[in-house]
Amino acid sequence: MAEVKNKQVIFKEYVEGSPKESDMNFTDAASIKLKLPDDEDEASKAVLVKNLYLSCDPVMRILMRKPGDETSAYFTPYAPGSPLSGYGVAKVLDSRNSNFKEGDLVWGTTKWEEYSVITALESLHKIQHTDVPLSYYTGILGMPGMTAYAGFNEVCSPKKGEYVFISAASGAVGQLVGQFAKLLGCYVVGSAGSKEKVDLLKSKLNFDEAFNYKEEHDLNATLKRYFPEGIDIYFENVGGKFLDAVLLNMRVHGRIAVCGMISQYNLDQPEGVTNLMCLVYKRIHMQGFTVRDYFHLYPKYLDYILPCIREGRVVYLEDIAQGLENGPAALVGLFSGRNVGKQVVSVSQF
Amino acid sequence: MAEVKNKQVIFKEYVEGSPKESDMNFTDAASIKLKLPDDEDEASKAVLVKNLYLSCDPVMRILMRKPGDETSAYFTPYAPGSPLSGYGVAKVLDSRNSNFKEGDLVWGTTKWEEYSVITALESLHKIQHTDVPLSYYTGILGMPGMTAYAGFNEVCSPKKGEYVFISAASGAVGQLVGQFAKLLGCYVVGSAGSKEKVDLLKSKLNFDEAFNYKEEHDLNATLKRYFPEGIDIYFENVGGKFLDAVLLNMRVHGRIAVCGMISQYNLDQPEGVTNLMCLVYKRIHMQGFTVRDYFHLYPKYLDYILPCIREGRVVYLEDIAQGLENGPAALVGLFSGRNVGKQVVSVSQF
Questions:
Q1: In this structure, is residue B301 part of a structural domain?
Q2: Chain A residue closest to B245 (CA)?
Q3: Of the candidates A248, A272, A288, which has its C-beta nearest B282's C-beta?
Q4: CB-based burial, A200-211: b 16+ in 10 Å, e otherwise
Q5: What whole-number distance in Å separates Cα of residue B63 and Cα of residue B58?
Q6: A243 interaction partners in chain B (CB closer than 8 Å)
């Protein structure tokens, strides 16, 4: 069978500081047969897919780090010279696995290229509902959605009427946590990095209040203004000085779900957090979590979220870059906050 | 009725940096009638006690801070010119409260003086068991004992065979957490600040291992040596750089009970903790707690601990300073680690 070109985004070298487009290389040098080989062992349970949407996620910055630091025991870093990997939505072109057949739509871990052979099938979910945008399976119906759902409901133990603060609130996860909190009857404030995002939080995403952290020079005072009674629940996406200011404003028996700390990922040495004694004074429960521990709840989550989407009770903002060649810029933009909503890369039409 | 002299330790002025003996004033200028007045409203439910033992506790440093910072909302600072207050063991000389009568032995919050009129009776417990040293009610049978019991069992969710690390391990709380963990079948390592303390941890307190942190220049490496498999449970008494090194050595789903951060109390600006992303990588549960939330468990704790004491399964190291006049030195010594075991001040013989 003839081979076709397979455009790819190659990871060039381990990154220090802010990732740049030049840390990746868009190329069409590779080619691939659009049929799985019949005889190879390794491919005996593989699926061959055409990638439709790729997801830009903050964790990808962590995977760009040189192996050897603390993180590499938990996240296998990218291999220089190979394509990036990440979550995506794809169509099955060929399958040696009985769970998937040609024509199936799937979401899960794939590679930054037009066509991928996926052998690690544990993370691959068959898409059953196609009356919603397929790109949603990189966001509200995928990993970020599950992260928001599990992080808020399982880690934060929220109650109606509680005061909830969300940083990076217009991002893939934050925008959902805020809407879930509002549906439960909480008071919800979010922070984001531009006026446009702040306006969207209030006008589209149903947040009670929102502020642009770049215009606030004393976050402690800002939080006191928005939360005169203090914060019951903080959904932490940012870390560093943000966390320090929040600790000062938490209420007794408050809960902090640590989802990520995007402000720290590009730093060689993270900022020190100095107000941890607040954990004792206020008996605060702070818990790190990763969505990987909660995927067993995915069917339950779909039952919850699909009606919300269909009935318009939850909306989802996406920022879709067109074409794999624009993937590196989209991914880099995530760390300067250029995206408005979930950053997706559209690779191919269905 | 004639008045008697009432020796006192007066708090002189708010403290910055390390507390000094000269921050307190031992005086016999005051006098007191050893009978409650019949007619005064305020004393209508009070008890008059003779203080026998006073407790030196790390939290007392926090109460010496100038009001206005974050802590003063949770701990009412000492008033300059008044005696220190704190936990103690006392004998009731007179009572206007039906729960206490002359001759009763009690423990709870009292003042640093020979005789006290106690009007806040919520914290006062009648002592029912006197076959154990009375001073134990400032330690193993009092607030530190409850702190260790609740912090370990309620906050850490310990399981047999887990790896437990305790800082300030020979102190009032740490020595108990270690022994409770050993009784449960955990592997227990403690850190302390002298060879004598390290020897006691291993020889008397049943710890599997112990080390002198002052002789370790790379705490991360030290912890890797003692915990090649990592730490499941950290009982945090110290904070700062200690916590940072522990975070690097925690296991997945580890638990950190934050009891206190004594290394930070004398600092104007706490040390920054930089490794909090470990909370996410390892899905760590970090919880601050104060014993005040757990005193309802005190009867259950007594049922557990009294047989342990009587049968010698748990021992308790005390460092008893003789005489109220030596109280300031004993209290100050707590912050330089001069005490070996629970620091108590013996005020008067029973």
A1: no
A2: A70
A3: A288
A4: bbeeebbbbbbb
A5: 9
A6: 276
Per-residue pLDDT of chain B (350 residues; tens, 9 = 90+): 789 999 999 999 999 999 999 999 999 999 999 999 876 665 568 999 999 999 999 999 999 998 876 666 788 899 999 999 999 999 999 999 999 999 999 999 999 999 999 999 988 999 999 999 999 999 999 999 999 999 999 999 999 999 999 999 999 999 999 999 999 999 999 999 999 999 999 999 999 999 999 999 999 999 999 999 999 999 999 999 999 999 999 999 999 999 988 888 888 888 999 999 999 999 999 999 999 999 999 999 999 999 999 999 999 999 999 999 999 999 999 999 999 999 999 999 86
What domain count does chain B have? Answer: 2
Chain A nearest-CA distance from B105, in A, is: 30
Determine, for residues B288 and A278 on separate chains, whether the beta-carbon distance falls below 8 Å: yes
Are B119 and B148 members of one domain? no
DSSP state of A208: S
Q: What is the CA radius of gyration of chain A?
A: 21
Q: How far is CA A180 from CA A239, B192, B347, in A?
A: 22, 46, 58
**Chain A contact set for B261 (CB, 8 A):** 276-277, 280
Q: Counting one residue from A and one from B, how many pairs have CB atoms under 8 Å apart?
A: 118
Same domain flag for B111 and B131 = yes
ipTM of the complex: 0.90
Residues A11 and A130 in one domain: yes
- pLDDT tens column, A281-322: 999 999 999 999 999 999 999 999 999 999 999 999 999 999
- A174 found inside a domain: yes
Q: Per-residue DSSP letters for B8-33?
A: EEEE-S---SS--GGGEEEE---EEE
Q: What is the CATH number of the domain that holds B80?
A: 3.90.180.10
Same domain, yes or no: B74 and B178: no
On whether the CB atoms of residues B9 and B26 are closer than 8 A, the answer is yes
Cα nearest neighbour of A69 on chain B: B248
Q: Note whether residue B85 is domain-resident.
A: yes
By residue range, what is the domain housing residue B256?
143-292
pLDDT, mean of residues A149-168? 97
Q: Judge if A155 and A285 occupy the same domain.
A: yes
Give bridge partners of residue A165 from the DSSP assignment: A189, A234
Nearest chain A Cα distance for residue B10, angstroms? 26
* Apex A129 CA angle, A127 and A134, nearest 5: 70
Q: Which site among B246, B252, B283, B294 would you substitute to test the A interface, given the most A Cβ atoms closer than 10 Å to its Cβ?
A: B283
What kind and span of H or E run contains B244?
helix B241-249
Taking the Cβ of residue B221 and every Cβ of chain A, the question of whether any pair is shorter than 8 Å is answered with no
Residue A39: pLDDT band by 50, 70, 90 thresholds? low
Instruction: Select from B258, B274, B286 the Cβ nearest to the Cβ of A270.
Output: B274
Pairwise CA distance, residues A135 & A299, whole Å: 18
Both A249 and A326 in one domain: the answer is: no
A66 and A166 together in one domain: no
Is B303 a domain residue? no
A-chain residues near B275 (CB < 8 A): 70, 270
pLDDT (0 to 100) of residue A149: 98
Whether chain B has a CB inside 8 Å of the CB on A289: the answer is: yes
A43 pLDDT more than 60: no
Residue A38's SS3 state is coil
Does B147 lie in the same domain as B286?
yes
Q: In chain B, which residue's Cα lies nearest the Cα of A74? A: B281
